[in-house]
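Task: sequence in, structure out. Protein: Leucine--tRNA ligase.
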Amino acid sequence: DARYDFAAIQAKWLPVWEELQPFRTDAPGDKRPRKYVLDMFPYPSGDLHMGHAEAFGFGDIVARYWRQQGFNVLHPIGWDSFGLPAENAAIKRGIDPRGWTYDNIAQQKRSFRLYAPSFDWSRELHTSDPEYYKWNQWLFLKLYEKGLAYRKAGTVNWCPNDQTVLANEQVVDGRCERCGFLVEKKKLTQWYFRVTDYGDRLLDDLNQLEGAWPPRVLTMQRNWIGRSVGADVEFAIEGRDEPISIYTTRPDTLYGATFMVVAPDSDLAAELVADADPAVRERFDDYLKQTQATTDIERLSSDREKTGVFLDRYAVNPLNGERIPIWAADYVLADYGHGAIMAVPAHDQRDLDFARAFGLPVRVVVDTNAPVTGAIPIIPTDPETGEAVLPDDLPPLDPAETGVALTGDGRLINSGPFNGLSKNNAIHRVIEALDAASIGRASRNFRLRDWLISRQRYWGTPIPIIHCETCGEVPVPEDQLPVRLPDAEGLDLKPKGTSPLGAATEWATVDCPKCGGAATRDSDTMDTFVDSSWYYLRYLSANDDTQAFDPAEVEKWAPVDQYVGGVEHAILHLLYSRFITKVLFDLGYVSFTEPFTSLLNQGQVILNGAAMSKSKGNLVEFADELRQHGADALRVTLAFAGPPEDDIDWADVSAAGSAKFLARAWRVAHDVTSSPDVEWKTGDTALRRVTHRLLADAPGLIESYKFNVVVARLMELVNATRKVIDSGAGPQDAAVREAAETVTLVLNLFAPYTAEDMWQALGYEPTVAAQTWRKADPSLLVEDSVTAIVQVDGKVRDRFEVSPHVGADELEALARASEPVHRALGAREIAAVIVRAPRLVNIATKK
Ligand code: ANZ
Ligand code: ZN
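Result:
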């Protein structure tokens, strides 16, 4: 009498699977259609944690499911193994980041093997291997050739404590994510990828993903890209040859522009005060310092008191010739639009707050009380006479007094030839007029910035550029890739504002590939988001040392059918992958423009309502859980906890309960006594119905990520099977075997070890994972029944269950065939039969 022992089952099947390698995808001549299921690859910062268990568990359900549906499924694994945590750990302990990284990879790998996702291990990759990062460099050069990788002096986030630039995502509430120091802005020469060139496509192509990506991710992407549509307008400046361009979304309000504001930290502001008198300059310099110590979030905040300085310069309104003062104020950002605005205080709240703070004029140019076509005006009445006051007669409330800007639609006033136009018409007409006079044009802007990809760090991909005094920037010739990272030994990795690689003199000193003269390597390394932007393609040719990826393999497998990962990557990683995919499309390397056809964001594993962390001391360790409950119970618990998108509170679930369920399922398979060649179409019909319902429903449920419902249905089937085994029909019933086999096949999605062991108990060879899904028998799928009533002369004589779709003829026939009805009728003759399918048959007899 065997007992369910997860550890023994794991130890039994792991070597069998490693021998069989059932998940390799490279068999020649494999004619099956293909699916590509991908989990976001892990960062090797320690052992795997519960979040990995969850995400990889879910990905594996999908991968195993498609395999059972007859697909050749690619489900690869690798490591995102460059990056700051390794370097910081190395600095702290005085060790090599390489050793730390690869030790962690080895640990995670051991845990993965035991957890047993259906990976194709033959494609394993590590982004920190030269075999991988060589192709990062290749990609960089492709972008460089296209003008999409460039170097510029720009304002960057700078942590004064860590002495390094920070990516936008490393700045949290204006502070350094790691040390908490206030982040400063600094002008540095850095490498960028020109993502903004792709702003329109990155935004518009999101429409293709509607319904296949979580709505909130689509929204986050849209907001991050932040396309705004408006116009550039040129303002002539007194005492300056060149006009100043401003960007506005409201060219219709141009007659209401009563002053201009430039960003204090823009080149333009510096130039405008260059010749100003000393008092003005001094005030400006003070204000600039204050601005530089202010975060963008503060600068953009609407409820902050407005500050600024007058620059003692004037611009000319291009439409009405009015002379307007130019101010510098921090609510205008240097790196958006042109870093300068026309201020229209009557219709823009920020401008109004500023005008009221400094006593600048406010002029209403859109009458927001006037009805515009299509809008139904609310007509107020005069409180004294009770008569309607026509909206045209109501003067708009004066923003200068109310402090509330008029931002709504309306009709133009105080605007010369544009008076009477609605806002939208006026926008078009003003742009036309500006265009005709060559002083403005339609334009748009993105919140999205170019991607700053250089890091002054050691543990990353060296940028394949050589700086030569004669030739300038020279790309490293492709046949000299990879530019290998020098050994960390002897290098000071501590952040000090310049790249540690620069100190590796022997490494950095090279001959210029163009002129042969003395030159130096670029010492920056790439943001690791570059590595992860295209790794999904590398899996397709992971062992190919002649190219980044084989276009023929890409054609076969990509794009990814199902991507699984955390919502923390909803913006940057996905945006960068989408960008690089579009670039590769434009370069002719791939034939699609979106990398991930559908996306599942799993929730977090939390504890007692709170996120788990080492510092809080509430960490549930994956390794402990694995040891205590086994891989299968863990997977089932995660799948059963609720919809996969929701957080899982580990305090509310029971891995022990899952283990009990698994033991019950396992027991059922071991109790089956009929042989595999039973007559399938026999046995307990009620049980067969439950079996076939599950076979029919599970595909739709899995495809809509309702994994928890499938587990619940499995539990139901196990219980129903147990009942029949313990009843008179017993373990030899064919329906019992059918049910047990179905449980095994479906359980393979959630609990592969248990399922494999059950499969063997049922008399089959490994592996159950290679078995195809069984088709439901439609005749066993009758829906719920309803009760039909038969009356004879108004008295109920019989009731029986029928299908809700029963036809009138069929129902009448059933009624006429009923024994009790026969008895009630006796010798009387039927006069009329009224049928109201499916619920009622009324029989009237002749009197
Ligand atoms: C005049 C105006 C009148 C504006 C009005 C708005 C309302 P989005 O939608 O975010 O693109 N703006 C332009 N460049 C700016 C900068 N560098 N820093 C801060 N603000 C800037 O917003 C575009 C609007 O934000 C522009 O339209 C401009 O103000 C301001 F009734 O121009 B508007
Ligand atoms: Zn040269």
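Residues 228, 247-250, 253, 332-333, 336-337, 339, 341-342, 344, 347-348, 445 surround ANZ (ligand 1) (CB under 6 Å).
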